[in-house]
Amino acid sequence: MFEFDIKQLQLTVHLKLKQLQREQLSTLTYQNIIDTLFDSVWKDDYPRSLFEAVNDIMNLTADKIVAYLSKKAIIESRQHCLDDYDDLLQG
Fold first, then answer.
1. Cα–Cα distances in Å, from 28 out to 19, 46, 72, 74?
2. SS3 annotation, the chain
3. CA 87 to CA 89: how far, in whole Å?
4. What is the C-alpha to C-alpha distance for residues 30 and 37, in angstroms, rounded to an integer?
5. Under a CB-based contact definition with an 8 Å cutoff, are residues 25 and 70 in contact?
6. Sign of the CA dihedral 61, 25, 54, 42?
7. pTM of the full predicted structure?
8. What gap in Å lies between CA 69 and CA 91, rounded to an integer?
9. pLDDT by residue (tens digit) across 46-63?
10. d(CA 42, CA 1)
11. Are 36 and 64 in contact (CB under 8 A)?
12. CB burial readout 20-55, b (16+ within 10 A) else e
């Protein structure tokens, strides 16, 4: 998969996370970014160099992450029935 130092990528993801939390998405998590990268950005083709990976990470936008997370939530909700949400629906 990656032939370069994973710690450099982790640092880049943390830097992007802090930027997005500060500017737009205060509740964003590290895992949200990782999921977006692996399941959306790198779904068909992993980066071949550290430069490509860092570039992909730094070019992530709040819109792209929210779009991915929304799609993921819709797909995951198909596995549940309305009764699973009783605690949320009762008022």
1. 10, 23, 15, 18
2. CCCCCHHHHHHHHHHHHHHHHHHCCCCCCHHHHHHHHHHHHCCCCCCCCHHHHHHHHHCCCHHHHHHHHHHHHHHHHCCCCHHHHHHHHCC
3. 6
4. 11
5. no
6. negative
7. 0.79
8. 27
9. 999 999 999 999 999 999
10. 11
11. yes
12. beeeebeebeeebbeebbeebbeeeeebeeeeebbe
Cα–Cα distance measured from residue 72 to residue 45, given in angstroms and rounded to the nearest whole number: 20
Residue 55 in contact with residue 88, Cβ under 8 Å? no
Whether residue 2 has pLDDT greater than 60: no
Task: Give 13-24 as a 3 state SS string.
Answer: HHHHHHHHHHHC
Question: Quick one: angle between helices 6-23 and 50-58, nearest 10?
Answer: 10
Question: Which pLDDT belongs to residue 90?
Answer: 73
